[in-house]
Amino acid sequence: MFEKILVANRGEIAVRIIRACKELNIRTVAVYSEADINSMHVQLADEAICIGKAPSADSYLRIDRIISGAEIADVDAIHPGYGFLSENAHFADVCENCNIRFIGPSSHAMNALENKAISRALAKKAGVPVAPGSDGLVENEQEALATAKRIGYPVMIKAIAGGGGRGMRAAHNDISLVKGYHTARTEAEKAFGNSGVYIEKLIENPHHIEFQILADNRGNVIHLGERDCSIQRRNQKIVEETPSPLIENKHKDLRKKMGKAAVNIARTARYTNAGTVEFIVDDHGNFYFLEVNKRIQVEHPITEEVTGIDLVKQQILMAMGEPLRISQGDVNIKGHAIECRINAEDPFDDFRPCPGRIDMYYSPGGRGVRVDSHAYAGYTIPPHYDSLISKLITYGKDRRESMDKMSRALAEYMVTGVKTTVPFEQAILQDPNFRRGVYSTNFIEQLLGGARRELIEEKA
Question: What domains appear along the chain, each with residue ranges and CATH number?
Fold first, then answer.
């Protein structure tokens, strides 16, 4: 049993981990930057250690300072949350070498899924379909043009490292390909310190569907069903739900096929702990491997709501060597859950981040409503990090009930002092296509470009 865990993160995910530890009677150590001295995770932890100045490069990304804090506090393990160092194989390796348990996949598994190009090769080995594309890195524009000619336009240029839509560009002809190739490389270098890109066939009007997996260190691997993450802007997820309306309404056979594919990829990579296998699905029910997220996901709460399984506690227990106590046949998906990411952004000014002091903060409640947040009245949102204020989750016996609860909860949510995405998400929940469950990853662009923009602005 772990006695003390260091949480190498901040914000709502740090609070989420600390709460799970408290319920397991495990003491916690928070690390924080100078900008986060008044953050809720610092206040909730049993101990707190400042690890540097506000920029993440001087604090939350400093492996040496985090390890020093772990050694000073004499912790048994480190939980990296998501973002920052959560998918850094070197960090996992340093933890292992310092005899500190890393709560996540092993460095071996991370290296096996080191980047998206390598992951594609592993998916092929596991017998999982991948979209046609380059065999690996595309080293120059001539190679890019040759690849596009072979697989046909449109194509997508993708950074091999990182995520969040950075280093990605669509191309529909030679001119946009050459421009997009160099733009994607430059953006990837700035964001991830790695300019490598690859090319794959662009699936038009796609659905972004991912499967939650759990894998212990004894070879047991299961999936906990899918999450539909197709409501996104510039590849940044905004609204997620489970089960997927596409699978429920049109392709129920996909759940078993894609779940099996996700488990096969995890087994092939010798993956352990929690992770997510992401896929692209077209309107005809064809699915293609996208990537593996080697960490807990932002949207993990909706899976918890429909399965009754606490994923963060499962992560901790598996890191202690505990076997999974549930088999695939025991997984019972019940009801429907939706998550909205509430960000401090102005949706009517190109989603410009709006850091600043929260004057009033009132979060919704009631049966079937969950709020994962680190915000409070008087809290100042720093400009140095992600603009996420909270995750609003609703659960109902079916999709309609979950949607109705979300609409009600969004209407109750009050945050003053900073602009938020709440009115934008209210409009999404009222959109006829969303309510029918008929949408793809192009939904937001269509919503912003159509007549329904008036409804959004009216709610603002």
Answer: 4-103 (3.40.50.20), 132-201 (3.30.1490.20), 207-459 (3.30.470.20)
